[in-house]
Amino acid sequence: MKIVSYNVNGIKARLPRLIEYLDEQQPDVVCLQELKSADEGFPEADIRAAGYGAVWHGQKGFNGVAILAKGTDPVERKRGLAGEPEDEHSRYIEAEVNGVVIASIYLPNGNPVPGPKFDYKLRWIDRLAAHARDLLAEERAVVLAGDYNVIPNDDDVYSVKAMADDALMQPESRQAYRALLAQGWTDALRTRFPAGRVWTFWDYQAGAWQRDAGFRIDHLLLSPIAADRFADAGVDKDYRGREKASDHAPTWARLRP
């Protein structure tokens, strides 16, 4: 079972690339982030024509998450996170696909630091952690996939100095991510590449793609039962280099039956 996290940076702008990816790779599940589209603008017909069912949680112009499943309709379990009722950002959706509980996550960026956006980021991670504990208590195969906007380690970035002041690399961001892992989650890509130096994002600016000046912010976290089924993980990097591509590459983990 290949489960993909893919920040598409605009579902309308990136639809040809997404359909191309589905056709070529035939992943079982794709968790999308940054749809930048209201619910009614989601291209359900195109997704279904490609052989995938979908659930989505959109927002006009910003954020937005979805879960696609090959040959079936994901069974939605939850949208949004508790703990901040006034929060209207569309950043979390959770569904069950073929017995696996899967979440698509778009964690806040948090820049500039310090400031209210960074404070919101940290509160949001705390809310995710609270729900993650509940998911672990279910003792099921669970995958938390998404753009976490956290660079966990120094070897997850091309240049520590270049990103030192960014919200993605602040000690508080890293500590919150480590605390989440400490609940009992397995970072699939890190497990596969323990030495790091594997990127999932390359900025559009300053020739970052051409210089391979990237970093790792797209993560798939596995519950213990899912981790027992872990087979492989990777980044489908070449899709970042295609015409009008997202600035993220599809990042994936594969589970055994």
UniProtKB/TrEMBL annotation:
Query: Active site located where?
Result: 106, 147 (proton donor/acceptor), 248 (proton acceptor)
Boundaries of every Endonuclease/exonuclease/phosphatase domain copy: 4-248
Per its Swiss-Prot or TrEMBL entry, what cofactor is needed? Mg(2+); Mn(2+)
Site (Transition state stabilizer) residue list? 149
Q: Provide the cofactor note recorded for this chain's UniProt entry.
A: Probably binds two magnesium or manganese ions per subunit.
InterPro entries documented for this protein: AP_endonuc_1 (IPR004808), AP_endonuclease_F1_BS (IPR020847), Endo/exonu/phosph_ase_sf (IPR036691), Endo/exonuclease/phosphatase (IPR005135), ExoIII-like (IPR037493)
Q: Which GO terms describe its biological process?
A: DNA repair
Class of the enzyme per the UniProt entry, highest EC level: hydrolase
Site label Interaction with DNA substrate, positions: 248
Q: Where does Mg(2+) bind?
A: 7, 34, 147, 149, 247-248
The protein's UniProt keywords, in alphabetical order, are:
Hydrolase, Magnesium, Manganese, Metal-binding
Checking Pfam families in the record gives: Exo_endo_phos (PF03372)
Annotated family: Belongs to the DNA repair enzymes AP/ExoA family.
Under the heading NCBIfam families, the entry gives: exoDNase_III, xth
Know the name of this protein? Exodeoxyribonuclease III
**Species name for this entry?**
Sphingomonas suaedae
